[in-house]
Amino acid sequence: MTAAPDTRRALRDAFGTFMTGVTVVTALDDHGNPLGFTANSFASVSLDPALLLVQIARTSVNYAAFTSGRGFAVNILSEGQKHISNTFARPVADRFAGIDWQPGPHGAPILPDVAAWFDCALHQVVEAGDHAILIGRIEAFHATQAPGLGYYRGTYFTPVATQGAVPTGPDIIVSAILEREGQVLLIDDGFGGLTLPTARVGRDGTAATLAALIAQCGLTATPGPLYSVYEDVARAQQHIAFRCPAAAGRPAKGAFVDLSPTSFTDVTDQALRTMLDRLADETRMGNYGIYFGNQNAGQVARVATGQAGKRPLVKGTTR
């Protein structure tokens, strides 16, 4: 049985409520070239014998190499290695460029500055739906004092760094809704899902952060009207989204998709996906509003009139 798109989306969200660490799984191909991919599907299996498991998608270009090779390594990333996670989750030509990796005792690539690593022989491959479970027999391992990088509900978190930070109020997060001819730009979220161009506001302020997001996408776009303001209490974040009309041109990352709920199935952040669903609906009607609230409920203030302009403030999950 193949799950319907809506069911897949709900299932992804349910899985995302389980907090995990972030790993990069590595191996060597038949020519001795390093391979790797980001995974949070890592678990210990047994102490005697020493076994662990990770999963790899059957659609991965590295599927054959990992399921038929002699072994692999699991590198548990530390809190400062979000960039490595993102690199190994995207279709980059050389994911190991600039990384001073070393072969482990059993031969698989070990990344520098990780929280821990496990060098494994391939013990068993279990086919399981659209993935395969790689069970590794641990031949060597090492753990450091570096805290591990976390992943929860489609985003990274750094528990040790956050715990030691001085409370200064919620982080301000800006999203750029880059629109063009009935489409919106979505980019890779680093874990096989999609998201909007999004960044934390730095010292230069919201406008500068939004301009930098647009520039990183390689597009000419006008920072447009405010579209959504909501607080994510659980993550201590205040989210602000702006609609930004984009000119013609190929984006440096991501791709434009139709403004339709069916295009947003793989958007991992539920609040962003709900906001995009509302945008698709409002674009069809030509009647836009601004959402104020939190990640679960709030109000939409209408800012344009028209055939549907008589609708009052609407309560609900309509970011």
TrEMBL record:
Domain of life: Bacteria
Entry annotated with the keyword Transferase: no
Pfam families: Flavin_Reduct
Residue ranges constituting the Flavin reductase like domain according to the UniProt record: 15-158
Keyword hit for Oxidoreductase: yes
Keywords: Oxidoreductase
Protein name: Flavin reductase
Gene source species: Paragemmobacter ruber
